[in-house]
Each structure stands twice: as C-alpha cells, then as structure tokens.
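[job 0412] stage=fold_complex status=start
inputs:
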Amino acid sequence: MTETGEQTLLEVRDLGKQYGNVVGCAGVSFDLWPGEVLGVVGESGSGKSTLLRCLSAQIAPDSGSVNYRLRDEGMCDVHALSEARQRMLMRTDWGIVHQNPRDGLRFGISAGANVGERLIAVGARHYGNIRADVTDWLQRVEMDEARMDHLPGTFSGGMQQRLQIARNLVTQPRLVFMDEPTSGLDVSVQARLLDLIRTLVSTLHIACIVVTHDLGVVRLLTHRLMVMRGGRVVEQGLTDQVLDDPQHPYSQLLVSSILPV
Amino acid sequence: MEDRTILLQAIGLGKVFTLHNQGGIRLPVFNALDLTLRAGDCMALVGPSGAGKSSLIRCLYGNYLPQQGRILVRHRGETVDIAAVHPKRIVDLRRETIGFVSQFLRAIPRVSALDVVAEPLRARGVEPEPARDAAAAILARLNIPRRLWNLAPATFSGGEQQRVNIARSFVADFPILLLDEPTASLDPDNRQIVVDLIAEARDRGVGIVGIFHDVDVRRAVATGEVRMAVQRDAA
Amino acid sequence: MTGKTIAGYNFAYLDEQTKRMIRRAILKAVAIPGHQIPFGSREMPLPYGWGTGGIQVTASIIGADDTLKVIDQGADDTTNAVSIRSFFSKTAGVKTTESTTEATIIQTRHRIPETPLTEGQILVYQVPIPEPLRWLEPREVETRKMHALSEYGPMHVQLYEQIAAYGRIAATYDYPVMVHGRYLMRPSPIPKFDNPKMDRNPALQLFGAGREKRIYAVPPYTTVKSLDFEDHPFSVESWEHCCGLCGSGTSYLDEIVTDDQGGRMFVCSDTDFCNQRQAQGFRGPLNSEAAE
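[job 0412] stage=fold_complex status=done
writing structure:
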C-alpha cells in the first residue's frame, strides 16, 4: 500500500546489474500499479534492455529487488522464487513481447498452436475449447482466424507481432513487458499495432512496462515515463510532463531531438 | 446555502524554465503566485502574451512542474498537493477531479471523435454504449455534424477540433475545469454555446480557471481575475 | 536344462560388475516409474540399433533358472529374434521357449505379446530413442528441465497440431504415455494398439536403450495412460479382417502381400498366440481346408 491507497502490483527497489566494470543499470526504483503503462526510454546503451531483463526475471540482478504481488500470496521477491515458480509466473501472470518475433514465438508450430500452447501448459485438455479460445484471441488481435493453422513464418512482421501479443494475453496476464514492440515495422503497421496495444491494455486493465527509444510510442501508450541514461534513471514522472516540461538536461536533449513531421 | 468550498489553492507558486542545452539560460515565468478557487468560481487569468498564463494552467494540471510552492486540490474528500505528490496520484486526479481543455486538440490518431469524447467516461468505468450516447449528446449541442462523429478529428477544421476538445471535458462531471482559450477558433454562434456550457458548469458549483482572450466571453463567465505580468529576465 | 555355453565368456556375456551397475540403474528406474536413468552402456557384439539396450538389461537380470523368449515384431522366427535367443543360449545356457506363458523373461522389439502376462514375468523392451520430447526440443538441458518440472505442454501441442491437420491424432506407434501420473514416457515403437496392455500390467516392464544409454521401467500394476484430449480420446487400431490362420478378431494383424496381383492376407503378428489358437482348434478363413 502506498499513499495512493491502491495496492501496488510491482515494487522495484535499487535494482542494479553490472557487466564487469560496465554498469548495465543501477539504482533503479519505482512502483507500478495495476492497469498502468510505464514507459522506459533511452538511447542505445542506456540500460533499458538490461533493466527489462532484470525485471522480467530473465537475468538475475547484482543488487536490489523486484517484488511482485502474486494473486493469492502478496508481495514476493521474484528472484527468490524457485525456477519452477518463475517459469509458471512467466507463463500465466506475466507476458513478454519481444522486439524480434523469433524470440517470442515458436516458428515450428502453427499460429493457433502458438496461442493455444499457454492454455495447454496450464492444463487445458479439450481440443474444441482450446480452438475456440484461440479463434477468439486471433480475432481480438485482428488476425484472420482462417489462417490459424499456418506457420508463423508465413505471416508478415506486423502479423507476427500481433501473434506474439495474442500468445501472451491468452492467459490474461496482469503484467506485460514489451521490448521495442514496434521497431522495424512499417510506419502504418506500427500505428495499427500501437492502437491495438493501447486498446487491449486499457480494456483488459493490464499493467505494462514498455521499453522503447521512440518518444512517439510513449506519448501514445504510456501514463508514466522513466528516462534512462548510462544505466541510471535521470528523470521520471507523468509522460506528458516529462515530454512537455523536461527537467533533466538529458531529457531536454532527447525531447528536442525528435524530428518534426 | 451555496457551497463555497475551496477546491484548489495555489500558494507561493513559482515557475522557471532552465534550458540546460542552451547554456543553462533561465527563463522565469511567474513567481510567488497565489490563487484560491472556490466552488462556483470562474477565475480568468489576465495578462499580456508571455505572462505565463498557459504555463500556470499547465502547472495546475500537473503537466508542468513548478519550482516553488504548493498546489492544493480537494480530491476524494482529501487535500492533495499536485506539486509534491506521486505522479500516479495525478493520474487519478485527472480522471476524477480536474478536466483540462488545452489550446490545441492533441487527440490520439485514428480514434473517432465520438470515442475521443467518450474516453473520460470510459476511464471512469462507464460502459461503451452509455458513454457514446453522452458523447453524442454533447457533440450535438456543440453543433458538430453527425456525419463527423465516426471520423478521427485530425482532419477537422480548427473550430471543429476545439469543440471536440471542449466536449471531452464537459461530457463528464469534473469539480474543477482548466480552460486555455476555449473559444479561440470559434465563430460567434458556437462561442455562445461554449459560454453557456461554462456558465452552467460554474453555476452548478464547478470551479473554473480559464484564459479568455475575448473580453465579452470573459465578462460573461468570469467571477474573478488573476492578473499576471511578464517576468523580467533573470541571470 | 542348461546347454553348453561358449568358453571364455562370463555367464550371459557381461561381467558381474557391469551387471551390478545395470541392476542398480534398474532399481532406480523401478523406484521412479517412467523416469530415464543413465547407465554405462557397454560394447556389445552387435551394432547400435540392433537391440543392445534390451540385451544388456536381459543379461543383467537373467539367471540359470530363467526361461527366455525373444520376439521381433511379435514373431519368434525372424532373424533378430533367432540371433538374440541363440546369443543367450550360447552365453548363458538358459532354457529358451516360444511360449509366452512358459517364459519368465521376454525380450521384445516393438510388440507386446497378445497373451496376458502374469506376476513374476519380466518384459524387456528394445528402445531406439528413449526421450519422448526429443523431436520437440533438441536441447538435452531443456528436456531434463521439462521432465523435472513436469512441463509437458509441447507434447500436447504436437497432438493438437495433428488434430488440426488430420482431424484426429495421427501418431500410431511409439505413442506417448504418462506413467504413474508423473513422467512422460516413450513406450518404444510398439503400435498404439499395445499401449493399453501396459496399464497396470502384473509383469515388470523394463526398457533399455543401448545407443542412448538410458534405462527406464514401469513396475507391476502401475498406471500408464496414453495422452489425448477430452474430445479426442485415445483409440486403438481395428481391422475389417480377422486372422487368416486362426480367425482371431482381437489381435494385432500383419498385412502380408502374397503375390503381385494384389493378393494379401492378414495374419496375427504374435506368432505364438496364433499357433496356440490353432493348436486349440481355431481356424481362420485361409486355413479352413486344413481343419480336421
């Protein structure tokens, strides 16, 4: 519980990760509430990807803690969980949308199987029901359910990202990590994907941490923003405040560097 | 007995822009500013261009950060200092307590005018259909033609965009409204409709802080004024 | 009745320490039904792929009083069955038989005998690839984790894919099973027809993979359940024909091409079962002229 009176979903305290002498990230602290979208911006080498990987339990931090409120058990240190529980958490309550669909999808099984896999992993054993759920989710991410038996490699990049999103959302996670979810896609495809993400996140009340270098993406998607540089958070606050009235020199530099359209 | 509760109070507010990447030059905006807003007040910010009127409104909304002072707001029966509170609290405040009409509509692209206007109600948990109905009602009142309702506002005229902006803040009940030039791009008929909307809200007990360049509009809605002056350049 | 054994070889070919090592592995396997136990697979006098795992298991458990039956695809008289039976005959001097009911140890390649087994019998399976997840996940590190954490989703996903592609589960042999509700196991390339026989069988079932160096086991009366979906339950093969020789309508039939005009006949794959039925007077359509 914090001053806002609503229970936090994620509490990060003084998180740090070193690679030898190089600071991956250091001293990162923040809270995240249910349904909130937090953006993490920075340029290459800012530490934002390292931070995301520490948060999502893909790597272990050197210092600090990541505490998550489990559904029935209250706050727990994610990195103190057994590997079995971490894997279960990542498959049910959490989602990760990777920059490259190859990291987030299984290319050897059909699109439908990619979405149904998480349902099967938590015990679904009725083929008809699984198929119905998968169809529903493919429709929600605006994919053609007639193609559900096609392999992911036959879809465009934008469609593969939609498939990644469906695969993650099918178990109704409460927290989704997104790493540059729209990088590398054509602009119009990006736009529609961001619209989809925005709608789904708000309709399903999912908390999200979005790592990106694109300030347009954060303006559109996020409520709050953290600016990272050299592994540290140099400014954090409401997205519109950080973008409209940046206080830190680096934030001001970032904002003023956007190319006008 | 009228409700004259203090809804918002700015105490000793000061704002300075520091441009770190341009030699650290400091641009003071306002200093030691006090403002008290009660239920039923409509305070007009008055002063020449560059006096900091828009900046003050943005500070009250949490969009700009003041360097000094406090901004106390009544929210859910408590008093919250916008200048000091956790940003998450401001998100709650903006959803329930403070509405803001900016000078220019910055709408999310590819969302229909109807959904842009319905959004504040949807954020409060209102179901899609009733929210859209309320949005339709206020768009109709503001003379936005029905054929535009399902289009995204990006292609609307300046006046139409401004009316969508206004509709967004009047569709839900906000105890406090911040209005930055709400009638600037409007023709006389539409201006009158907006003036009526503002007056009705004020008479309902809403507290309003606004910038109204048009003297007639100001006279019709304002119950008080805050005079602001351009700051001398500081070192 | 023991015959003469070849000079210069230990009983049943393997040295006693090796047999102890394998028996220790077998004990571990029995203690954890369906779980694969690594063992120090030895050089055998036949190449990998010819049943070295099964032979090592048999060699470790066989005693002078045992009676050995060896079948290959259900038949006692194919080359491999004959060779392996001869191997144990020469190196252990044990009694051999073709009768399922007389045998104490039955070594099999790719079939379970039709005649039900009894307590005290041991069925030794020859296994090519022991890891059920091998084709889904090439990394050994990952498959071990999946077994440890009971994460078998990908196997069900594969069956899902088969239903999506063919309208039904298409696997017909080496059909994956859950042993004792805990471990996913590959039963070796027996036809799915034989899977139900594994469930709560009174005999001890041992599995040996020589090339892959794994042993696993299903103790007597252990539950063995074939994977399926609630709305696509597990089902076995059926034939329109019965056995041409003994008339059985319940055994697994081989289809044998008899000429190059499309002539074929269906015959029990289990030769002992078929012979026993004929000895009892049962006749199939191709055999009726020979009826007494």
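[job 0412] summary: Strands of chain B lie at 6-19, 25-38, 42-46, 68-75, 78-81, 98-101, 176-180, 207-211, 224-227.
[job 0412] exit 0
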